Amino acid sequence: MSDLTRLSLSEAREGLAKKSFSAHELTQSYLKKMEETRDLNAYILETPEIAITAAKECDHRLARGEQLRLMEGMPIGIKDLFCTQGIRTTAGSKILGNYIPQYESTVTAKLKAAGAITLGKLNMDEFAMGSSNLTSAFGSVVSPWSIKGDTRRFVPGGSSGGSATAVAAGSALAATGTDTGGSIRQPAAFTGIVGLKPTYGRCSRWGIVAFASSLDQAGPMTRTVRDSAIMMEAMAGFDPKDATSVDLPVPSYESMLTGHLKSLRIGIPKEYSVPGMNPQSERVWSQGMEWMKSAGAEIVDVSLPHTKYALPVYYILAPAEASSNLARYDGIRYGLRAPAESLEELYEKTRAEGFGTEVKRRIMMGTYVLSAGYYDAYYLKAQKIRRLITQDFENAYKKVDLILTPTTPNAAFAIGEEPKDPVTMYMNDVLTVTVNLAGLPSISVPAGLTEEGLPLGLQLIAPAFEEGRALNAAYVIEKAAEFSTQVKELRKAS
């Protein structure tokens, strides 16, 4: 039997339906691949016994002739930000190093109900704060991508870097991610996979460890656009336990992949051509426009004038919400408790020992902008600009149906060569944070390679709840780019 880990999710579903292999065989293939790729450090916790038990249950269902569920027998990884009942959940932090939830997040519960099999919990930047996956308390994640003749190892992006690496390396068929400022799309672009950030409220946040509550959103990370459409349908839906969940029917996203864009207007925002952008990213962007035109779309120039303020606005609002959300980790209720002789010392020592440098930095930033005397000058002003950024998109969508941009200004950087200045590191999010501030859906699809052979992604941004439209346009890019063929040619040449 050929390597089952090379199949896409849609291909694996088809093979399972035809009884070409069993869920148990498929799961065993992934467990073997997990062992072979442990040096990438994608998983914080592997759950092989749970996976095998679930696979056998799927096979029993199929043997009884029961209908194939949406994610039947599909072995996936879960970002360690999603609470999983009876399975350790750490958020990549020492402060939650031994936390075992007594409840299941809504998204993972939906995936299990759809037949998905959990392979384990995936590594991530601590509390989802990072763009590189270098801030985890459980060690850095390494991208499976490399350059011929170059011994450097590359970052997979963050914060969903473990998810991105697992999917790209074949140690998970698909994975869950969360996106607060680009944490699904940026690592997807860095590792040559598809990452979908849904509309805010489309997927429940209940049971996901909070970073910034008005920005966080769960989404799928997959190998293909079709896989993303299938997984998105399983994850989405109204949840009465989440006050921000939207009560709208979930369509069949897969049925929307027509590959035609006739009479669709694609907006190109001049503000996304940022200083320091890799010329090869510009080239892939121009090529994306040509692919859109070939599929019948019209290219239209648009302006999003407040984009230049998006990064500072994000890095005021997100840390402010983080400082509030992370106040609960005090050594009293759950998680790490440092030995101390007084309550004040307990708080100080627990948080000092439990949180990493980046998390401490963002808590301090957030506490500062919310403090008396600075609230109006920073937090309130940032909220007003956030509204203007949202209005920019609203105005643009009066002229166009979708917006096309690069996902990141550059390809992945090497481990050890990351910017030492945190503000420079934050620039990795410059093309993605606007989407979270406006609460819109967006997808990154692999579209090309740098001259050295590292992946580059294109981003499609849609109006609220138009994930199907973004998926279909991404499907067009995927077919036109023939990314897997580009990769094969690259490896043949090397």
Description:
Helices cover 39% and strands 12% of the residues. The chain is an alpha/beta fold and 494 residues long. The protein has two domains: 10-305 and 392-493, Amidase signature (AS) domain (Amidase signature (AS) enzymes, Alpha-Beta Complex), CATH 3.90.1300.10; 307-386, no CATH class. Strands 1-3-2-4-6-5-10-11-9-7-8 form an eleven-stranded mixed sheet, with helices on both faces. Helix 4 (106-113) links the parallel strand 2 and strand 3. Helix 9 packs across helix 11 and helix 9 (310-325) crosses helix 12 (375-396). The radius of gyration is 21 Å and the shape is globular. The two termini are 27 Å apart. The mean pLDDT is 95.
End-to-end CA span: 27 Å
**Global outline:** globular
β-strand percent reads 5-15%
The CATH superfamily of the largest domain is identified as: Amidase signature (AS) domain
**Helix/strand order:** HHEHEHEHEHEEHEHEHHHHEHHEEHH
Please describe the topology of this protein.
Blueprint (H helix, E strand, L loop, with lengths): L8 H9 L5 H14 L6 E4 L1 H16 L11 E5 L26 H8 L3 E6 L38 H9 L4 E5 L6 H7 L2 E4 L20 E5 L2 H11 L29 E5 L9 H16 L3 E5 L7 H16 L17 H12 L2 H14 L4 H22 L5 E5 L15 H5 L6 H6 L3 E8 L5 E7 L5 H15 L1 H11 L1
Parallel strand pairs: 2-3, 2-4, 7-8, 7-9
Antiparallel strand pairs: 1-3, 4-6, 5-6, 5-10, 9-11, 10-11
